[in-house]
Amino acid sequence: MKTANSNGITLAYDSFGDDAAEVILLISGLGTQMIRWVQPFCRELAELGYRVIRFDNRDTGGSTSFEKHETFDVGTLVSLLMEGQRPPLAYTLADMTADAIGLLDALAIPNAHVVGRSMGGMIAQMMASEYPSRVLSLTSIMSSTGNPALPPPDPDVMAMMLKPVPDPASNEAGFLDHGVAFSRRISGTAYTFDERACRVLLQEEVRRGRERGGFGRQFAAIALAGDRRSRLAMITAPTLVIHGTKDPLFSPDCGQDTAASIPGAELMLIEGMGHDLPAELFTPVAQAIDQNARRSQSSPFRTRDPQ
């Protein structure tokens, strides 16, 4: 793991592939670390001819902690928002977007193909809308637009998010059981849920460093980010939206709304996929990202024959 100074903080990152190749920047989701972009998937992208960079968002893993800042558990935050209150934020999605741009600056990367999942998809969307010269192509996976008219998460999923999570420092077994149960619930219906791999990944996140309150601070940044559709309409980068038909956190309507909001966006709905990227989908998703990257007018890969 390496670190870079970005936007006044430190970000942990690593990379795969040829350092001289065009870059795919992978952005992680709410409360998760860069290792959720698992190495086999990163290597598939690298084998397609890219330098693949993944990083820990602020408040996760090896990146700068905001533990000293005020935070709210999800239930308290939802109650405050329902009462019309706007709680103070430790940071915003705009700050996290600037982090990603700052990482490119620190690594002397002029532009990149940007791929984000869930919250990372929101950050990727904001990169493409606010920093168009830095984004060669955009792939938004299992994400949304902030449109308040879209369906909410399934009630039982929201209940799991509102439930207090055991502290891994004092109850690692309980923390892991909760994480596995939540991951299983959101994983969809058509693909294998690998409980052992999930548990190992969660244990690795604990080992790398879990920030107390980081999930709540990132959740607040999402909740108060507002409706991004007017900004998404300004995106000019070739865009691919990937979404599962069985996503209980962001319904398929969210993916459809994202694609409809971005001019020229292509929508890839995957039957039975949930809010997860199972191993069976690594190859087709990597190939779809590659195909979208080739739509970039700046990409030397755009004239290659499909593999």
Number of spatially distinct domains = 1
Beta-strand fraction estimate = 15-25%
Sequence of strands across the biggest β-sheet: 1-2-4-3-5-6-7-8
Q: Tell me about the biggest sheet?
A: 8 strands, mixed
Mean pLDDT reading: 92
Assign the CATH class. Alpha Beta
* Rg for CA atoms: 18 Å
The backbone outline, from C-alpha atoms, is globular
Helix content: 25-40%
Uncertain ranges: 301-307
Structure, described:
The chain has helices spanning 39-47, 74-82, 93-106, 119-130, 155-162, 172-185, 195-208, 214-223, 229-232, 252-261, 282-293, and strands spanning 2-6, 9-16, 23-27, 51-55, 112-117, 135-141, 239-244, 266-270. The chain is of the alpha/beta class. It has one domain: Rossmann fold (3-Layer(aba) Sandwich), CATH 3.40.50.1820. Helix 10 (252-261) links the parallel strand 7 (239-244) and strand 8. Helix 3 packs across helix 4. It is globular and about 50 Å long. The two termini are 31 Å apart.
Itemize the secondary structure elements and their pairings:
Blueprint: E1 2-6, E2 9-16, E3 23-27, H1 39-47, E4 51-55, H2 74-82, H3 93-106, E5 112-117, H4 119-130, E6 135-141, H5 155-162, H6 172-185, H7 195-208, H8 214-223, H9 229-232, E7 239-244, H10 252-261, E8 266-270, H11 282-293
Parallel strand pairs: 3-4, 3-5, 5-6, 6-7, 7-8
Antiparallel strand pairs: 1-2, 2-4
